[in-house]
Amino acid sequence: MRGLPWNEYSSFFPDPSVSVYLDSLRASVVQSIASYEIQSSEIRANNGGQLVIPRIDMPEFPPTDVRGRGNYFFSAIHSLEHTVEQLLYLVGKKLLAEEFYDVAMVYKHQLIPEIARGLAPGCVYFNVIDQNDRCPADVRYQYYMLKPAMMLAVSGTHNKLLHLPFQPERTHLHPHALNREVDWAAVQRDYLTGSVVVVDDFLTPHALQFMRELALGSTTFWDIKNGYMGSYLGHGLQSPWLAYMARELQELMPDVIQGLPLRQAWFYK
After folding, report:
1. Domain that residue 214 falls in
2. What percentage of residues in the chain have a pLDDT greater than 70?
């Protein structure tokens, strides 16, 4: 539903076409727009013409639902600025094609200023560090319902899975995710006695590198909070190293979590 990442799509074809890839995203957006129009009409009919949505981050609903976590309709300026930075980072690393630079510029120079004006008439928004004209201090954090034309202008890339970093399996050279130099028996003992336990150097350097690459390169930060974004296990975030961490914690702290499954993991930015 979130789309096929460009790095996987491009590996399927000897001469992959960015335009064809973006066209497929636009087509999915057209379906999403139709779904939204039906939902919004029903909500307005039951609320005196107002679009009243108590929550917009319910994980049990799909992104095509206005209540779903990381849906295709809601955004905020701070989240779109993160999208711009991430697209430029991935293009600079040659992990996305050059055409995605143009998409980033549409976000930066078209969508964000238009959203700022929609939230605060007369607001002239440049970016977070510039002196913005007639813009309220919280304009970056207010929710905004994207218009269909906006969603199409960025080729349906909003809250889509455009890139997911390759995360290799463990090897005999790098067999662990958790740092074996930590005294895990002492950590477990302190935890069981009720102490607050802080574990420095929790990960091996190798695992830490992969987690950093996952945070920088995964276009999975779809859940928009007040000033930050979330990426969640089961909602795009995935890496074998998360599973390795859970298994190794069970092995190293068996009296605490042996047999307990990993239910959730998340990154916040």
Report:
1. 184-268
2. 100
